Each structure stands twice: as C-alpha cells, then as structure tokens.
Amino acid sequence: MTTEKTVGRRLELGIEWIIMASRWLQAPLYVGLVFVLGVVVVKFPFKIWDLMSKALSADESDLILMVLSLVDLIMVANLVVMVIISGYENFVSHVDTEGITDKLSWFGKLDAGSIKIKLASSIVAISSIHLLQRFLEANTVANDKLIVLMAMHLTFVISALLLTYIDRLADAKKVD
Description:
The protein has 176 residues and is mostly helical. The chain has five helices and no strands.
C-alpha cells in the first residue's frame, strides 16, 4: 500500500511539474510580440515622413487624420508593451528588476484583472481614434459603415465598463 501511495505521489508531482512548466510555452509568444513591436517601430518613421511631406499642402482635416494615425500607432505600441511585460510577469516568470533604475511605475503591480481593464481601456482609446478618423472622413464613408463603427465602439466601451465593474466586485469580495 505504501508503494502505491509513493507511485501515486510521484505521478501527481510529475503531472504538476508538467502543468507548471507548460507556462513556458507562452514565452515564444511574448518574444513574437517583441517582433510585432519592431514592425510598429519600423512603420512609424514612414508615417512621420508622410506627415511631413504633406503637411504644407494638406488641409486641416487631413493633417488631423495623419496625426491621429501616428497617435493610433503609438497607442498600439503601448498596448503591445503592456501585454508583453505584464503578461510575461503574470503568467510565465517573475522578471528580476534588481539594478534597473528606469522601471515602469505599474511594473509588477498588474494582476490578470488589471491587465484586462487596461487592455480594454486601450482598445477603447484606439477605437475612439479610429472612429474620430472616420468621422473626419464622413463625406467619403458610408453612413451604414459609420453606424457599424459606432456600434462596435460602444460595444468596446460597455465591455470595458463591465470588466471594471466585475473586477471591483471581485475586489470587494476579497475584502469580505
């Protein structure tokens, strides 16, 4: 009977080790997101060049659209950085920050719920910029497309609000 318990315990420990080690399967995904961030960085100077080359000849609404496009790209880059750092820290491995002086203020403080809320907020902000761009091009965008874009944006807003509400409920239950 003792050997059965020993074999069972070893099997249990082996399965637990495999499950815990499986989190490392996500590491290549985060490295892949670093490459995605690189693509965004490579794209940015071209957008700046486009803005600078058209700045004097563009009308005000086109200039605003180009600036919003730059802001949109920056927001996407911020979102990717947040997912890389907080996702890796929360789901793969603790990042050793000893000796790092330029550590981000939120580093190590975001749990899975906070990440979801920040991601949802970022998506709402990106959606807002995209929607504003389409409104500035309203004379070239069909009304039904604008309505669909507004509905999608409202869906993002409501989702972000619901995630925040659910996270607050969860925090309130932790206190009780």
